């Protein structure tokens, strides 16, 4: 493996991390011209300020969608994503708030309806992860917080969005390769990502009669702010080395999977998971 596919050692002291502090900057720009596959649609993206969320927001905007971003407190990153969405000629609504609070999720959906008059696509993407070297180090507080962000928040947003999603609407959940392979030091995070796979499959069946599709994307190692905010500098430097392609993926290599699942191209697909993970073979 050549050094030019790895990133320099670095870390950040708070989650979910800040994209503006990363070296090199993740590549979130869409790589191809749009074709209006989401023209006239309104999308709400949690964790939309940076990383995969930013890349999805820009890809959706290029395909014609209006964008609403729900993020925790990374205001500089959110403003930059807003600027980039508007540069695509699309409207963008930015909303700070913790998805682990159901009242905030209800209010966020209300703001989307108040600003845009509709909601067609929900992308549940916000997440946090914390390493523990041994199960005995996993505190009740961390366990509850990780599940509240990574699972409860997905349910809260889906529940709030459901009365507004039309026939043909789409919910896309971000799970992870760790749902299938596990992770030695991300015990609670991996458990939440497994729960998201089960949630996706259950919701897809529950909402079938309403014509709403529910799918998920399970990224492998992607270069996002969550990485330097989660791991030691040495770990960060080798992030992505374990997959067959030998490198971390960029957010704009993941975003097309969300565009596909949100569009009519995926009209016969529900309850499924797409795996942009650098070549790892994953069982279903």
UniProtKB/TrEMBL annotation:
Keyword presence, Cell membrane: no
A molecular function (GO) term: 3-oxoacyl-[acyl-carrier-protein] reductase (NADPH) activity
Renumbered residue ranges of the record's region Disordered: 1-35
PROSITE patterns per the UniProt record, alphabetical: ADH_SHORT (PS00061)
Keyword Oxidoreductase belongs to the record: yes
SUPFAM superfamilies: NAD(P)-binding Rossmann-fold domains
InterPro entries: NAD(P)-bd_dom_sf (IPR036291), Sc_DH/Rdtase_CS (IPR020904), SDR_fam (IPR002347)
The enzyme's E.C. designation: 1.1.1.100
Alphabetically ordered keywords of this record: Oxidoreductase
Stated family: Belongs to the short-chain dehydrogenases/reductases (SDR) family.
Name of protein: Short-chain dehydrogenase/reductase SDR
